[in-house]
Specification:
alpha+beta, CNF1/YfiH-like putative cysteine hydrolases, five-stranded mixed β-sheet, 7 helices, globular
């Protein structure tokens, strides 16, 4: 894949519905150079970060929409706050965007977007967009009623059941039936790289009966520690030291389980599986780049 080319990751099988537009961006292509790391060509940062110039992001978004085949669609974004809050986007919201409702095309005039971490609509011509750089993006489509939703699922949003609750809101708003829904869990930080603390495991254990299945321990393979173990001895009582196996969380599986609990068929759920930290040359990763990174977009809409 040439680094100057925009690459879009799509869910296999979703091409069966020609009215459905979706995709997960990568970091390849674009005009941004803030996070290039010795790359000669620009990158596709799609988030208005403090490091990148706004005009670069606007140009990147235009190029992304063109590559997606969504030029002319109204892009709707949120100020994401790691919540379980979900907003429904209708024609009135889009019409009133320029007068201050807060929801509207991200390529339009400057405005403070609404806060939340989920969007849903049955309005054609609208592209729902979620920004990520390790968190899990989840796209859902009702292929019978023609309605779509997009979710930003970090660990906090996941423990608050944003995806499971969001499907429930689709059932109320659009009379969606779970058996008519398809879902795609996009690229994000995978269990191989997502080390968390015990407090995160406690949060999940308080909410999910299957929480133990989402966590596993990864032994520390530090070659210095293996060669000089005495240097890492601690006076703390057993079980109270921070030395030992790291605790890893599988956020992708956590959100797949929520989709199943919401009634979706297992075969209707696609897990892309790409780890943003492992594949940092292909995706932006907040952890791999220690916070100084761009943003990708996960988008879904209807022509």
């Amino acid at each position: 894949m040439a680094k100057s080319r925009i690459e879009i990751v799509r869910a296999p099988g979703w091409e069966a519905w020609p009215w459905l537009v979706h995709g997960f961006s990568t970091r390849t292509g674009g005009v941004s150079t803030a996070y290039g790391r010795e790359q000669k060509s620009g990158e596709l940062n799609l988030g208005f970060t403090a490091t990148d110039a706004r005009e670069n992001v606007l140009e990147n978004r235009r190029r992304f929409l063109k590559a997606l085949g969504a030029t002319g669609m109204k892009v709707v974004t949120l100020k994401q706050i790691h919540s379980a809050s979900m907003l429904s986007v209708g024609e009135r919201d889009l019409t009133g965007a320029a007068t201050g409702t807060g929801i509207g095309p991200s390529l339009g005039p400057d405005q403070e977007p609404c806060q939340g971490d989920g969007l849903m609509t049955s309005q054609p011509g609208v592209l729902l967009a979620i920004q990520t750089a390790d968190c899990i993006p989840v796209l859902v489509a009702d292929v019978k009623k023609k309605a779509v939703a997009a979710f930003h699922a970090g660990w906090r949003g996941t423990v608050k059941r944003i995806v499971e609750a969001g499907v429930g809101k689709m059932r109320v708003a659009f009379r969606s039936r779970p058996e008519d829904l398809v879902a795609a869990i996009g690229p994000g930080i995978a269990a191989c790289c997502y080390a968390v603390g015990e407090e995160v495991r406690s949060e999940f254990a308080s909410q999910f009966a299957y929480a133990a299945e989402l966590f596993h321990e990864v032994a520390d393979t530090d070659p210095v520690r293996e060669k000089y173990p005495m240097l890492f001895l601690t006076a703390r009582a057993p079980g109270h030291s921070n030395v030992g196996p790291a605790l890893h969380l599988d956020l992708m599986e956590a959100n797949r389980r929520q989709l199943l609990d919401a009634g979706l068929r297992a075969e209707a759920i696609t897990v892309i599986g790409d780890c943003t930290r492992c594949q940092n040359n292909r995706y932006f990763s907040y952890r791999a780049e220690q916070g100084r990174t761009g943003r990708m977009l996960a988008v879904v809409g209807m022509k």
